[in-house]
Design a protein that fits this description.
By secondary structure, the chain is mainly α. It has a single domain, classed as MFS general substrate transporter like domains (Growth Hormone, Chain: A, Up-down Bundle), CATH 1.20.1250. It has 18 helices and 2 strands. α1 packs parallel to α4 and α1 runs antiparallel to α8. The protein is globular and about 60 Å long. The two termini are 31 Å apart. Belongs to the major facilitator superfamily. Nitrate/nitrite porter (TC 2.A.1.8) family. Keywords: Membrane, Nitrate assimilation, Transmembrane, Transmembrane helix. It is found in: Membrane.
Length: 449
């Protein structure tokens, strides 16, 4: 059965409708997750000295922070199909807050590694965000809704780079030493994560017409699948070659973004002789592009679909991926700080537009297994970050060399978009649904009211 009464407009400045409450709470929850997930990254220069970490050990913790997310993302999408995004998000936020706060207690590399591994689970929040907006918004705006909610969530990667050093500096001004300061700084996002989880449960609902259990009681949604049904949903998605093509594509865009979030501050700190606060500020600019860049990716996906249908969405994804790879290769060769920042911003624009373009396609691959598809593709982002992490843990490979090789890999990954095709019947059905939703939207799809 189809989810009914999806919104065909995005009314940014309202919380009156369940669609817009889901939109705003989902992006904000994902935004806050970045503070727990990558809050330690801009403080790594201090942590490195406090715990005596080598470059290889730092690289291993970077891999740990994104590796566990691959597994959790695969599971969380199917879980959303079963219990709904509202309860899934609440559990993830509340349980995820515990390892974020407990990292303050570590005193060795091994403990720090395990803490970052556990914290990585909250990265699965992205899948719930995309799932929730996918079932709340109609085909004419779903690309924009998915891209904007994810983009404003990803914006947390930028604000984290800027605010965590400021929180750390504030603690130092209060007389706390550096070894204790970075630990206390990580307690802050942990507390906020827990409170956000409670708010998500209280103020949101699963679908436009109610929560999943209510819809099932009224016969408007199929009964919740048991473990066998959940496995069948996952297998159905896993058998589709298009899902794995998008897995690779997302590995080459969001995986690259995660990698940059992990290394940007220490990269600028070491290569351009900057202070920790300045390096964090510059690194934060990369994530701050999410304020509009990922949204643009979704907007263009919806615009390409207006005339080109689903083929248009795929065509736009290829363009964004190709430009991302070329820009990353140029960024890796910059030796002057001003040029490095400028090219980084161009690269950031395309990597985030590619992410938005990817999830402009995901809702149309298999509607009956939406959670499983979103989970697998979302996991691709973290799988890409794990693979990229090995480039930056080697003592013999410089960050510049690693970034260049990463750019080449992105260009190659762009070719996977050629595999993403839809049958003429699906193309015709979605084109009709798009025109119907666009015709009923009244005015523009994106509204400030």
């Amino acid at each position: 059965m189809e989810i009914r009464n999806k919104a065909n407009r995005i009314r940014l400045f309202t919380l009156k409708t369940p669609q817009m409450r889901a939109f705003h709470f989902s992006w904000f929850a994902f935004h806050i997750c970045f503070f727990g997930w990558f809050g330690i990254a801009p403080l790594m220069a201090v942590v490195r000295d406090d715990l005596g970490l080598t470059k290889t050990q730092i690289g291993n913790t970077i891999i740990a922070s994104v590796a566990i997310t691959v597994i959790v993302r695969l599971a969380i999408g199917v879980l959303c199909d079963r219990i709904g995004p509202r309860r899934a998000y609440t559990w993830l936020l509340c349980l995820g807050s515990l390892p974020v706060m407990s990292i303050a207690l570590v005193d060795s590399f091994e403990a720090f590694f395990l803490a970052r591994l556990a914290i990585g689970a909250i990265g699965a929040s992205f899948v719930i965000t995309q799932y929730h907006t996918s079932i709340m918004f109609a085909p004419n705006v779903v690309g924009t809704a998915n891209a904007t909610s994810a983009g404003w969530g990803n914006l947390g990667g930028g604000t984290t780079q800027i605010l965590m050093p400021l929180i750390f500096s504030g603690l130092l001004m209060l007389g706390v030493n550096e070894a204790l300061g970075w630990r206390l700084a990580m307690v802050v996002p942990g507390v906020v994560l827990f409170l956000c989880g409670i708010a998500y449960y209280v103020f949101t609902q699963d679908a436009p017409d109610g929560n999943f259990d209510e819809l099932r009681a009224r016969g408007e949604l199929p009964p919740a699948s048991g473990d066998h049904g959940m496995g069948r949903s996952f297998v159905t998605a896993a058998k589709d070659i298009r899902v794995w093509a998008l897995f690779v594509v997302y590995a080459a865009c969001f995986g690259v973004e995660l990698t940059i979030h992990n290394i940007a501050a220490i990269y600028y700190f070491d290569n351009f002789d900057l202070t920790l606060a300045t390096a964090g500020l510059i690194a934060g600019l990369f994530g701050l592009m999410n304020l509009f860049a990922r949204t643009l990716g979704g907007v263009f996906s919806d615009l390409f679909a207006r005339n080109g249908g689903l083929k248009g969405r795929v065509r736009w994804l290829f363009i964004a991926m190709l430009c991302e790879g070329v820009a990353l290769m140029f960024f890796s060769q910059m030796q002057v700080l001003a040029l490095a920042i400028a090219i980084m911003l161009v690269f950031s624009l395309f990597v985030q537009m590619a992410e938005g373009a990817t999830f402009g396609i995901v809702p149309f691959v298999n509607k009956k297994a939406l959670g499983a598809v979103a989970g697998i593709v979302g996991a691709g982002g973290n799988a890409g970050a794990v693979a990229a992490g090995f480039l930056f843990r080697s003592e013999s490979l410089s960050y510049q060399q690693g970034l260049f090789y990463l750019g080449v890999a992105v260009v190659i990954a762009a070719l996977c978009t050629l595999v993403v095709r839809f049958s003429p019947e699906v193309e015709a059905e979605e084109t009709a649904a798009y025109r119907d939703a666009a015709g009923n939207s009244g005015s523009g799809a994106l509204s400030l009211r």
